[in-house]
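Reviewers asked in the last cycle whether our approach scales beyond single polypeptides. To address this, we selected a multi-component target totalling 872 residues and predicted its structure end to end. The input consisted of the following lines:
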Amino acid sequence: MHRVVIVGGGFGGLTAAQALRHAPVEVTVIDRRNFHLFQPLLYQVATGQLSPGEIASPIRNVVRNQKNTRVLLGEVEDFDVATREVILNDGSRVPYDSLIVATGSTHSYFGHDDWEKFAPGLKTIEDATEIRRRILFAFEAAEREPDHQKQREWLTFVLVGGGPTGVELAGALSEIANDTLKHDFRNINSRDAKIILVEGMERILQTFPEDLSKAAEKSLLKKCVQSRAHCHVTNITEDGVTLKTESGEEQHIACKTVLWAAGVRASKLGKVLSDKTGAQLTKNGGIIVEPDCTIKGHPEIYVIGDLQTFTYQTGKPLPGVAQTAIQAGTYVAKTIVRRLKNQAVKPFHYFDKGSLAVIGRLSGVADFHKLHLSGAPAWFVWLFIHIAYLIGFSNRIIVITQWAFNYLTQNRSARLITGIPFPLPDITDTANETRA
Amino acid sequence: MHRVVIVGGGFGGLTAAQALRHAPVEVTVIDRRNFHLFQPLLYQVATGQLSPGEIASPIRNVVRNQKNTRVLLGEVEDFDVATREVILNDGSRVPYDSLIVATGSTHSYFGHDDWEKFAPGLKTIEDATEIRRRILFAFEAAEREPDHQKQREWLTFVLVGGGPTGVELAGALSEIANDTLKHDFRNINSRDAKIILVEGMERILQTFPEDLSKAAEKSLLKKCVQSRAHCHVTNITEDGVTLKTESGEEQHIACKTVLWAAGVRASKLGKVLSDKTGAQLTKNGGIIVEPDCTIKGHPEIYVIGDLQTFTYQTGKPLPGVAQTAIQAGTYVAKTIVRRLKNQAVKPFHYFDKGSLAVIGRLSGVADFHKLHLSGAPAWFVWLFIHIAYLIGFSNRIIVITQWAFNYLTQNRSARLITGIPFPLPDITDTANETRA
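The resulting structure, written as structure tokens, was:
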């Protein structure tokens, strides 16, 4: 039986596995996590709206009735492209006839990896609970801080990166400060929180049409979020962020909480695969693929999702979103089956369904090419699409129920500060506080 | 204004704070966690039925409309009983006129603290996600293990302690192995898992009447859980558990997963308080209180909940359950108010409403003194009582929804292995695997 090995259980890998359900192949899905994560809602875990379990589905559970599919919890370390084997970190080898690599991406600090501990990014469940911890802890620390200046630093939040994730985090943070926590404190007014969204390019949401960027900026301003375009971060320390504005001026923002929603870099396995196959890499570590999503000279190795750089269609790489990964997952599954039947294969064609970003309650932007939506209509579209794509029927119902409560009560029930080492760090001592 | 300081936001402390809502006092609740945890359902987080956020309520949120109450996130380290101040770990002091200490309890390994890393107990949210990780990881490791003997060790689970927590964990583990995971693996049969519940006394659930112990044992046996009474644990290592049976024989059970549900010890603040006030401590570190729940010679210091040892009523300490803490919380709040009004104070009287333990779907035991229930009726009673006492309306609805899904589908959606350090530990290397 033809053996298909899929590395990565994200949108791309899992879609490919599901699409191979009835194919005459043996499928092995390898992931180092035991669950598929619904990334588009991860910011809601980071901001206390949802619990981790509500946006995760055990990979085994998703494919449990797929008799031709097995799942391995394991970390892939290397590939032996001559013998056609995947090598795990315990040395064990998994042979393949077709290989699908879909290991995604992680944050990039543009060469400043030392910024990471002061400005965590949002990719994993652990990132999300750490960001949640920092946000909630900042308000707690401000409540206990007698010094007015330090209190203001605890209540200042800087988000680096004005893409959809930065905008979503900024909007959610604003709702935490202005709605959720408004009755919770006695020494501080949570509404005094200052939220600053920093973007290096000329406008936030710069992959969206200009009118939608403007609409988003306006919505954020209504939520008391300052967005600052043309601003480059030049340094991040435990004392705050240093920016360089368009005019070249340096400016320091004193704050205790910085979140990173800027650069993205392909998973490390891209480099490993490129070393073994000679595949070309982009600056961000993405693998440049052929029109059929394979590596040049290796028609048995497919690369999809965020790890893939596909430029045939538009001359530019496709966007690094769930849609791209899902469509490529379906495409490569079909292609593998067609090749087994010796049928002709068409090149991959990405159909851009549009883009969405949510800002908060009844507020978002949606770009459906000819149709641009903002405000409540965009928010409703966002809501329905996210519910529809969320994996697992029970997750859907639970998320709808949580959202209904959050909406009606302006509350966020998943407001847990977890993972603190005991004893609790001294609140005035930020050096201790930056650990996970 | 009379200042009441409450240390601990568990059942006792939070009930006292809520009962003081309309009293002419200033209330400060201090806790090192920002949330109240609904302990009776913690085993469901440990076994993947519920997510942490679903059984936790932010303390601030619970008392947010109580204008006379403020909440401090902080760790109490000491008491100055002469100046009447609570001292936090950052050195700051919080003055009180009445003090309520309700810091609960933690596990006790009976002098074998080195067992903790091999056999975690279940007290905090972090404990629960760690236990969940170990249980789920054991099945994953077994799936990948080629050696048959080692595979069996991964599939053997020993629970130490046959009280309600041990029974609940054993029942849930059985359902994970026999129902939830039955279609998930290809190399192993999850139903081959061996679950052993070890109890030192003559029977499991020994605080319950004998007929209910028997019923519980029978229900567990139906679920393929072996319960072994009269067995003392003499050693726990990464290779398994050594027992001494009633006849004095030593027996080794080779297994990779051991969970601790045996001893309980009062919180460390009991010792601190005893040093400062001369209060008598029990062997487990509980503070022996006066009939009005105060410390002898300190009518302004109340001790309630698991930290309290109250022997006036029955000659024996009251049970360490939520009911005791809740009733004492209400009592001390009323007592403080009565004393402010110079009214006479009656001694604390505990009303034992009965005991419950759940074993699984449609299975449990309930002791309402004259009425003993087992099986489905006990389970329904358990269900309604736990929903009724769960704090937060939205938590209630979400938990009901999750339970309905779990019940109908036999699935457990919160099956996340989180907190693993990357790279994933080598599955055949247990030394790495024991860390959190």
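Residues 108-264+355-426 of chain A form a domain with the FAD/NAD(P)-binding domain fold (CATH 3.50.50.100). We regard this as preliminary and will revisit it once experimental data from Aim 1 are available.
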